UniProtKB/TrEMBL annotation:
<protein>
    <submittedName>
        <fullName>Beta-ketoacyl synthase</fullName>
    </submittedName>
</protein>
<comment type="pathway">
    <text>Lipid metabolism; fatty acid biosynthesis.</text>
</comment>
<dbReference type="GO" id="GO:0005829">
    <property type="term" value="C:cytosol"/>
</dbReference>
<dbReference type="GO" id="GO:0004315">
    <property type="term" value="F:3-oxoacyl-[acyl-carrier-protein] synthase activity"/>
</dbReference>
<comment type="similarity">
    <text>Belongs to the thiolase-like superfamily. Beta-ketoacyl-ACP synthases family.</text>
</comment>
<dbReference type="InterPro" id="IPR014031">
    <property type="entry name" value="Ketoacyl_synth_C"/>
</dbReference>
<dbReference type="Pfam" id="PF02801">
    <property type="entry name" value="Ketoacyl-synt_C"/>
</dbReference>
<dbReference type="InterPro" id="IPR014030">
    <property type="entry name" value="Ketoacyl_synth_N"/>
</dbReference>
<feature type="domain" description="Ketosynthase family 3 (KS3)">
    <location>
        <begin position="9"/>
        <end position="419"/>
    </location>
</feature>
<dbReference type="GO" id="GO:0006633">
    <property type="term" value="P:fatty acid biosynthetic process"/>
</dbReference>
<dbReference type="InterPro" id="IPR020841">
    <property type="entry name" value="PKS_Beta-ketoAc_synthase_dom"/>
</dbReference>
<dbReference type="InterPro" id="IPR000794">
    <property type="entry name" value="Beta-ketoacyl_synthase"/>
</dbReference>
<dbReference type="Pfam" id="PF00109">
    <property type="entry name" value="ketoacyl-synt"/>
</dbReference>
<dbReference type="InterPro" id="IPR016039">
    <property type="entry name" value="Thiolase-like"/>
</dbReference>
<dbReference type="InterPro" id="IPR018201">
    <property type="entry name" value="Ketoacyl_synth_AS"/>
</dbReference>
<keyword id="KW-0808">Transferase</keyword>
Length: 422
């Protein structure tokens, strides 16, 4: 079997996967729910929502850490997905032997911790007293739990990854970027394997307020499972969610040498920045178009070889116009015959984790021969002519997938995956 690609680089295999979303913990529970069109979006019970415009979310409420703040939950989500992925890969649980790339939200002190610091100050909250309280809190481990890099440090210690763990945040493209970094490290010959994780447990009240101020969230609270409706004409914004996806990436040569099962092959990665606006996409879609084309070129494939597209599909008006523009520009009329679905209709938008979760689902699509649906597709948008696999999953022999991640701030990353190395 050939173990290098069209540019002579090592082919990169996926030998382990793990996932956690509001649909459940692990690949089996998630896949069963996803392919049956089940929604994990529900009313928020973690904190009061009386004065919030959006009162629903795809939160992960079944982990013990779900009420301990975004850093603790993000760590727990990443840890759970990584455990599943490393176990499937058949690697030692504490001696991974390759680098870690973690996509995580820009974690900060939440209001509970900020108020605790204020309460701990001895002189009414003046700045000197607050500094003293912060120093005392540091001794007690507060900042170890809330610093941006501490999650990766803890994961690196547990799984025995090598080198300095990398924590990255490229908004909604973060999970895909982590996979890209791992793939490129293997291609450069820097390592035989890498652990790529996307995790996000930051669905806080503050996050809901911030996204509401951007008019990005849906306010259709009455029937939560119906609120996320990608590509529908009446789509009204995304649903904030939590989750994690993890992939063990390995050179195909290394995977074959140790007899590992090859789940899929990473064929191409493409990225392109959009400098138009902090949250809006460039109206002509040129950065997204360039990212799709870059992924195909990196894979050495043409548009006719893509058999399914896992859409970014956030359920916002502007994003889906831009995604359709990019796909119709790159694929032309052929885009009408390629299945394009969005699992965000069922799990919501998991932000930093989305690209990694969707990579796992893309690989399961190829392996299981089932395309997950876009649920809640009841009012087609005549301006978006796509086969969105409406409402019900579809059996299909899928050998190649394009997975799109288009993030706030103009960070666009696209991945091309194949069922086999061929």
């Amino acid at each position: 079997m050939k173990t290098t690609d069209h540019l002579g680089r090592p082919l990169v295999a996926v030998t382990g996967m793990g996932v956690v979303t509001s649909l459940g913990r692990g690949k089996m529970d998630n896949w069963a729910a996803l392919t049956s069109g089940k929604s994990g979006i529900h009313e928020i019970t973690r904190f009061p929502t009386d004065h919030l415009a959006t009162r629903i979310s795809g939160m992960v409420d079944f982990l013990p850490e779900s009420t301990l703040g975004p850093s603790r939950l993000t760590h727990a989500l990443a840890d759970s997905a990584a455990e599943e992925a490393v176990a499937q890969a058949g690697l030692p649980a504490d001696d991974f032997g390759g680098p870690l790339f973690l996509a995580a939200p820009p974690v900060e002190l939440d209001w509970k911790h900020r108020l605790d610091l204020y309460a701990g100050s001895k002189r009414g909250g003046d700045w000197r007293s607050l500094i003293e309280a912060a120093r005392e809190a540091r001794k007690n481990g507060l900042f170890d739990e809330t610093q941006f890099s501490s999650i990766a440090d803890q994961l690196a210690d547990k799984f025995g990854t090598s080198g300095l763990p990398v924590t990255l945040s490229t908004a909604c493209a973060s999970g895909a970027t982590a996979i890209q970094l791992g793939t490129e490290a293997i291609r450069r010959g820097e390592c035989d394997r890498a652990l790529a994780i996307g995790a996000d447990g930051s669905a806080t009240a503050e996050a809901l307020i911030r996204f509401s101020l951007l008019s990005a969230l849906t306010t259709q609270n009455d029937v939560p499972e119906k609120a996320s409706k990608p590509f529908s004409k009446d789509r009204s914004g995304f649903v904030l969610a939590e989750g994690s996806g993890a992939l063990v990436l390995e050179s195909l040569e290394s995977a074959l040498a140790r007899g590992a099962e090859v789940l899929a092959v990473m064929r191409g990665c493409g990225e392109k920045a959009d400098d138009f606006h902090r949250t809006r996409s460039k109206p002509d879609g040129s950065p997204a178009i360039a990212a799709v084309r870059a992924a195909l070129a990196d894979a050495g494939m043409d548009t006719g070889e893509i058999e399914y597209i896992n859409a970014h599909g956030t359920s916002t008006q502007e994003n889906e116009k831009m995604e359709y523009l990019s796909l119709s520009t790159v694929f032309g009329e052929d885009i009408k015959s390629i299945p394009v679905s969005s699992n965000k209709s069922m799990i919501g938008h998991t932000l930093s984790a989305a690209g990694a979760i969707e990579a796992v689902f893309s690989i399961l699509t190829m392996r299981e021969g089932i395309i997950p649906p876009t649920i809640n597709y009841e009012t087609p948008d005549p301006a978006i002519e796509l086969d969105v696999v409406p409402n019900e999953s579809r059996k299909a022999d899928v050998a190649t997938v394009l997975s799109n991640s288009f993030g706030f701030g103009g960070q666009n990353t696209c991945l091309v995956m194949a069922r086999e190395a061929g």
